[in-house]
Amino acid sequence: MITLTPPSRRSITCAVSRGTAAQWAYLGTSVRTREAVARWLSRGPQQIALTDLLQGTARSLRTPYIEYIGKIGAEFDSPDWRFSTLSEKSPTMSNAFLHICYAAVAAELCRRHKEGETLVLVVESPEVRRAVAARLREGGARFTKVREPLASRLVSVVRDWSEMLARRVYWIARQVSRMAVARMLGFSSEVMNGAGEARPWVLLHNWVDDRSFLPEGKYRDSYFGPLREELQKRGLAVAVVATVLSKNSNYWNILVWLKRSGIPVLVPEAALTPGILWRWSRSLPLMYPRRRAWSRFQGFDVSDILTKVERVDWINPRAAAVRMISEIVAQWRRRLDARAFIYTYEGQSWERGYCKAFREDFPEAFLIGYQHATVSPMWLSHFPPQTERGNVDFPDRLVTNGRHPYELLRQSGIPERTLACGGAFRYDAMLGASPAPDRGTSGSPVTRVLVTPPILPAQAAELLLAALRAFADPRMFQVTLKFHPHLPTGRVLREAGVGPFPPHVRVAKEPVADLLRDTDVLVYTYSAAALEALAHGVPIVHFASSCDIDLDPLAGFDGIRASAGTPEGLREAARAAVQADAEERAVRVRRWREVVGLLLSPVDGKTIDLFMPEGLRKESAGAGYVATNVQ
Q1: Contact status, residue 102 vs residue 26, Cβ threshold 8 Å
Q2: Residues with Cβ < 8 Å from 567, sequence gap 6 or more?
Q3: Closest by alpha carbon to 7, among 125, 94, 95?
Q4: Which residue, 47, 295, 464, 484, is most buried by CB atoms nearer than 10 A?
Q5: Phi, psi of 159 (to 5 degrees)
């Protein structure tokens, strides 16, 4: 018997009691709920480990999904689609690909299911349950699907409407307040601190928060490092387009610091007008998105899954707000001339909004995207489908921060004429790091473990819970937790369902580079801290997620990391990682630094040249643009 059920205690225990030799699997991202289900079923059925199956399924569906989204985009071909979360394909913004992988995993588990056994599939998402049920029904399989009560559906609709209204009111109020604050501090559509500068301008988009300023008030660019100063030395007028990160920063304070810093700066909200906000507010759709019949994906009816993402865009005005970018850039056009626009590339919708707006209002401007962070093949937003290549929403040049990401993007089909291999501004200091002292010199029986949970809440909670169980013995381990600065620690603790930490576990605020000096092994799911550890000669252990897609950029390198999907495996891998002798460790460190060198290239004068408007010539090439004369 196969049973599809939501994570309800009554329906789960009832399903298990119907048969013998029961097995169960949990498909969802709520670590806390999964742990509750495990407690309910602790005395009976066996839990199926999903790590290998989920990650293998994701890898096999990666390319078909990218092209599937491209095919849909070719059918719709509108700004609303190109700015949507579905079109974006970002794993941090949408669960569409993950949920499709869940459906494929469930179908495979059902295929392996033996007659006479009980298989209970606990599936969080109602949309995934419907997709799996439709697949089983079409295949003639016998199964039981626990129906969703009508009341729960009604509650879901009411919750969606309430959240939509609350988010829209908040979003409009925030834009109005930001517009007012920017105007009060003297910002406008013109460049602040730009008097006397030569023109035209090179506009450098950046994310700004408290970390963007040194104690003495000097502006520090966390993403492009010295690029602004280097371009200025070459005689270019460079203005920072400052988008303020709001979660951990005070907007007023950030703008005051920007003004006092003396750097030429544009604040997007200062270009807003009441008319722009009114037009944008009126353009927001009011009707609740209805289910539509999307084309099938790999034989699955994924209409419910994709419609759910459309409803998320209806609830959250983030995607719709991208349309305001064109109005902001149009305001800039009246006050300044731009020769180039440089931005951090991740393939997100706001990037497309800026590219489209600059094509329309600054057609002579050269658009340069910079792949600033580490990139994994599974970070789907970085890889445009074939139908989008040459689109006006793509930059003229895409500069990578290393040779390996250059090859990843080239092999994905991005034309070589568009790609350029640059250097790693964000991680340049890492490349000159000295290896940490040999652990054999410490003489301590306690292994010092640094755990770096990622920015995604589910994976962070999953890693935290596994690490606390793996390294629970204070006689053997000393644990330091370094949470992502943009993910509230309390949120991770609530999702993991853990309370106060034991004495041998502490939460650190120091930079990773400082923590690595007293670390024997680093444990991560995906994090740039893993590269930093390798550069410092510290071994790493990867924790493979069983609830989310692995985004680790080191997955394709053999012999660089140990990987485990259970607390027991994590503990053994960490102990084995620190037991190499001095000679073996020296060999490993050389290999690790070679890999870091492949992923991240040093910044030099040639890197700066890639961002220079001079020496560039744009030629019309069909629907897109081509960068030529690149040395």
Answers
A1: no
A2: 466, 467, 469, 470
A3: 125
A4: 464
A5: -65, -40
